[in-house]
Design goal:
- The protein has 16 helices and 2 strands.
- About 70% of the residues lie in helices and about 0% in strands.
- It is mainly α.
- It has a two-stranded antiparallel ribbon.
- It has helices at about 20-45, 60-65, 70-95, 100-105, 110-140, 160-165, 185-205, 205-225, 225-240, 250-270, 280-295, 305-320, 325-345, 355-380, 385-395, 400-405; strands spanning about 10, 245.
Length: about 400
């Protein structure tokens, strides 16, 4: 008589963030495909007319519009993955310390390394991307470099540049250079700040620090746009599920990912896919939960001996490597390509009824990927070197090493 084993849920003291588990490969693949989806969606929106603007759209354009219509869901996936990786990594460091409560007060606490990690991760990619946006603005006559209004609040001002570096776009300044993809980085930046405050509020043994962290969270929660605070809960869900391992069979895994995909498709067709708001949050939560459950069920060692699994792992790793760069650079490259098309061919838009124009679209998408890869090689790939240099300059040397050195003299 056969027995059916029900799924079991286990809480992990340390989340598995290396490349040895199935969820790590899936996260890499999801992150890369999400960035590709956003770039493809924005490219279609920039160079093709909207689907509702066409009286009788051809079937192949309807297919393209559907396939590139998941940019909203892709950004939600970014938030979930960010919470899983960034939040999970910080929880791991706190868990390896003398104790979560002590880590908030100890001189070797992870707060300074955490701040350095987050800033170098953002700025190593963002600063070159903003400079690229400025260069494209100059080349396309979108900005006059001779103007002396760098301190005023315009799309290319120094104020807007600095504001985008610290997550103030859509809060008090505009997206720099009209790069509207940068709005989600404001969410990410504030989540990087709010999560440590939340941990201090609950884990610190100092009542003063607890109250101070709670007060700062209250100020941020009431000062930031409502959507940023609201979607912080999805980010937190990603961090929480990084600690959960679900043991189940392949049938249960297939069921959860099917539910997540079906809900995502349904809300893509019938739901709210524009701004982040209370309505979109409810639908995003619906498909986020089974997706996170699926990832939690994949926190087991992954065998990569087969050739096809090795190929998938390699593709996932390659896509995820430059996904951040692709996300922040594709808008300026699209603007540059449209300008080149207008100057060379007298048009910067494509025609849905012209099959050859779809080859042009594919070529432009390939250029976006190539430009992002080049930028990645020039800048993002050196993030760890920059991070190590900053830590060596800012972090205090261990006291024990100094004492041992002095005792030998």
């Amino acid at each position: 008589m056969s027995t059916t084993h029900l799924p079991s849920i286990h809480w992990q003291r340390q989340s598995q963030l290396d490349n040895t588990t199935g969820c790590s490969v899936l996260i890499s693949l999801m992150r890369g495909l999400a960035a590709l989806q956003v770039a493809a969606a924005h490219l279609r929106a920039e160079i093709f007319p909207g689907l509702h603007e066409i009286v009788h759209p051809p079937i192949y354009y309807q297919a393209l519009a559907f396939a590139t219509g998941f940019a909203h869901q892709a950004v939600v996936i970014f938030f979930l993955i960010s919470g899983w990786l960034v939040g999970g990594s910080l929880l791991n460091k706190l868990g390896r310390a003398a104790g979560p409560a002590d880590a908030a007060e100890d001189d070797t606490s992870p707060w300074l390394p955490y701040a350095i990690d987050r800033l170098t991760r953002l700025w190593t990619v963002l600063i070159p991307a903003l400079c690229l946006m400025l260069l494209v603005g100059i080349l396309t006559n979108g900005v006059d470099p001779s103007r002396a209004d760098v301190a005023t609040a315009n799309d290319y001002s120094a104020t807007t540049f600095l504001g985008n570096l610290v997550g103030l776009q859509t809060v008090v300044v505009e997206n720099f250079g009209g790069n509207y993809a940068l709005w989600s980085l404001a969410n990410e930046t504030w989540y990087y700040i709010q999560f440590p405050l939340l941990l201090i509020m609950f884990l610190s043994r100092s009542r003063v620090r607890q109250v101070g962290a709670a007060a700062l969270l209250l100020v941020l929660g009431t000062s930031l746009p409502f959507s940023i605070t609201l979607y912080f809960t999805l980010w937190l869900l990603g961090a929480a599920f990084s600690r959960i391992r679900i043991d189940c069979g392949n049938g249960a895994r297939l069921a959860t990912i099917t539910v997540a995909a079906a809900c995502s498709i349904y809300f893509r067709l019938r739901g709210s896919n524009d701004d982040l708001n209370l309505t979109s949050f409810a639908q995003d939560l619906v498909y986020s939960l089974p997706l996170l459950v699926f990832l939690a069920s994949m926190q087991t060692p992954l065998a990569t001996t087969s050739s096809w699994m090795h190929g998938i792992t390699r593709v996932a790793h390659t896509l995820s490597e430059f996904s951040f760069t692709l996300y922040v650079t594709h808008i300026p490259i699209i603007k540059l390509l449209r300008h080149a098309g207008l100057q060379t061919f007298g048009r910067d838009r494509l025609v849905p009824h012209a099959p050859l124009d779809y080859a042009v679209y594919a070529g432009m998408l390939a250029i976006l990927l190539a430009a992002a890869w080049l930028s990645y090689r020039l800048f993002e790939s050196h993030t760890f070197r920059v991070r190590r240099a900053v830590k060596n300059a800012l972090q205090p040397r261990p006291r024990r090493a100094s004492m041992a050195s002095s005792s030998m003299k």
